[in-house]
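Dear colleague,

As promised, here are the two records you asked about, laid out in our usual form so they can be pasted straight into your sheet.

NAME FIELD: protein one
SEQUENCE, THEN STRUCTURE:
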Amino acid sequence: MATKKVADSTLYHLSPKGFWKKFRDAVVVNPEISSGLPLQGVNRFPPPGSRPEKYSTPATKASDVAQNPYWKRDVRRAYPQLSVITQTGLSSLLIEHSTPQAVAAPAEADAADGSKAVSTTREPLELAAAISKITESTKLYSESNLPPTLTLAYPRWQPERAPDAPHPQHAYFPMHLYK
């Protein structure tokens, strides 16, 4: 005949001693319940605080005070920096980068030109004039050649009226249903 095995509540948990054992025996509802405090030597190996060596923080770039000064670490002083772009600067950037440029390897470019590239300075244009100049020189899209659209994995939802939910004839807020 098989015997019923029961977990011993004192095997892996601390049990009270002395006065508190007598107090527990008198007050407890179920004496088989453990105290819930695990034995240190059984459940935690190695036990906390038993290792002889002391912990040392590993050396990193952040721990080097010479390369990580306080003013770089202080996040309270990381104020947002202003960035100013004028219309003339923006128009010159738009015109400069609007035309596709052929990019050659550095060795070929030096051999072909014989000298370094000379920057050409153009007279600054107003932003509206620069935008009109760019758009009239390159027509990417027209009514017949539209820009690409995103392809969706599911059809776009088109609301359709469904039969209304039952409601009184003169309801103040009737419910309109859509599918």
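NAME FIELD: protein two
SEQUENCE, THEN STRUCTURE:
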Amino acid sequence: MAQSMMLYWGSGSPPCWRVMIALEEKMLQGYKHKHLSFDKNEHKCEEVKALNPRVQLPTFKHGDIVVNESFAACLYLESAFKSQGSRLIPDDPAEQALVYQRMFETNNLQQKMSFYEWYVPEEERHESTLKRNKESLITELKLWEGYLEKMGKGSYLAGKNFTMADVVCFPVIAYFPRLHCPRERCPRLMEYYEMLKDRRSIKASWPLEWLETPEGPDTFKNL
């Protein structure tokens, strides 16, 4: 079944990484894939354009089905292979609601992380803008710290079991230790990262350049 799948992906991209984790969790190893370089604009190749009008990664194809948004691809894999590998969406409506809530809240964390520095145009990098972005990210981190505190030590994002919330959010959280966020700023998130970083599906899909260069720049050292 995995042989009829094709994933176009870029290393270090949280959206790409989460789809790869989902594929591993659903025991779909052996899928076809093509690694494309963002730096070289390889993701704008004709193969991707033919499948994805937004010309973005990930681009995922299973038989005649094309799913290009990472959340949609992850949910598709869980639905299509529900009885295979890890169950990532619980049946209980209350548990399911929390999984979906944390999944979609990940967009807030990723956006505020990105706008902390990377996506601010050079001409807009005024002290007031950077200060506002920093405060926004710190406020967001406090929310996630509170979520994990409420779940209890050793818990995942939506409870005692690994779920789609973790598949979706871990690739974003992993950037904080990599970019030298002070541990005291988000101790619960750091514990969560340590708990999950050696999980089989995560290790199997670890970003290539992170293997070569385990530590990134000190972007978050002053958070």
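A couple of things worth noting about protein two: The longest strand covers residues 5-9. Strands lie at 5-9, 32-35, 59-62, 65-67.

Best,
R.
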